Amino acid sequence: MNTLFYIASALAIIATAKTVSSKNAIHALLYLIVSLLAISVIFFIMGAPFAAALEIIIYAGSIMVLFVFVIMMLNLGSAGVRKEDGLFGRHIWVGPSIISIALFLEMLYILIHQSGAPVLMKEVDPATVGKLLFSKYILVVELGAFLLISGIIGAYHIGQKDKVIHHRFLQNENNNS
Amino acid sequence: MEQGLLLAAVLFCIGLGGVLLRRDIIFMLLSIEVMLNAAGLAFIVAGAKWGQADGQVMFIFILTMAAAEVSVGLALIIQMFMKFKSIDTDVASTMNG
Questions:
Q1: Of the residues A133, A139, B51, B96, which has the fewest C-beta atoms closer than 10 A?
Q2: Which of A47, A63, A129 is the closest to B70 by Cβ?
Q3: Is pLDDT of A109 > 50?
């Protein structure tokens, strides 16, 4: 089981280094998603399957979609001018694919040899996490709800465009103040 | 245990280097994500070491915080792009009080 951990962590480090060092934002996002997958495999090995699922669903799912959305919205630099056939060139997807295939093979190995390969440490199942989350840490859960609602409102407020005032009277008032 | 914490430290340092070295603000935000993720990994490793669920609970809170932070950060990036027509942080180096 240690070997699997070392392979997954090496892949995570490689993918993260490629994330930080790559020039194109979309390439960096692909590598970051792969790095999140690798860390999720590490969580699985560590005996935290719930955290592994959350890592995939929330990080690689929703947060990365936000990033892709913003990058496509900004439409940076020469990205709009570039030919579309160049978008699916081999150099873009080969690196992330190799790393994710290696991770997939690891996952298959874990699933097939489930009985023979003990997890690295004691497994903590989702039910325990849920009980602890909604008994001891209930106050922090509510604070998290505050944080999320203020995040939504803040993002809406910051992200809106400047208002264009068409009315003559309002325009004057805007200039005076 | 030690290997897991070491991995978390390495990932955190890569993210820190990214924040310090890159000038593109999207990459800085991505590096912050990497650092948050490394912190979550450290929590999970410590929780697994003691066999307690607290580590995973903390990971869920880090996840919540990362989601809120990313939404506000990306809105700020859009605002910055509308104002400066660029996402280079060197462009936004002056204050306007």
A1: B96
A2: A63
A3: yes
Residue A62's closest chain B neighbor by CA? B67
Rounded to two decimals, the pTM is 0.81
Closest CA to A26 of A76, A84, A62: A76
pLDDT higher at B59 or A110: B59
Residues from chain A that touch B25, judged by Cβ atoms under 8 A, are none
A155 with B87: Cβ contact below 8 A: no
CA pair distance A29, A104, nearest whole angstrom: 19
| A8-51 pLDDT, tens digit each | 889 999 999 988 888 888 888 989 999 999 999 899 888 888 89
Distance CA B87, CA B26 (A): 7
Mutation site, B71, B79, B81, interface A, largest A CB count within 10 A: B71
- The amino acid sitting at A170 is L
Q: Would you say B11 and B41 are in contact if contact means Cβ atoms under 8 Å apart?
A: yes
On the CB side of A40, CA atoms within 13 Å amount to: 21
Between CA A25 and CA A46 the distance in angstroms is 31
**Full DSSP string of A71-125:** HHHHT-GGGTTS-GGGGG-HHHHHHHHHHHHHHHHHHHHHHHTTTTS--SS----
Query: Which of A105, A130, A132 shows the shortest CA–CA distance to A53?
Result: A130
Reduced to 3 states, what is the DSSP secondary structure of residue B88? strand
Give A112's pLDDT tier (boundaries 50, 70, 90).
Answer: confident
Please tell me the predicted confidence (pLDDT) of residue A84: 46
Q: Rg of the Cα trace of chain B?
A: 16
CA dihedral angle for residue B9, residue A5, residue A58, residue B12, rounded to 10 degrees: 10
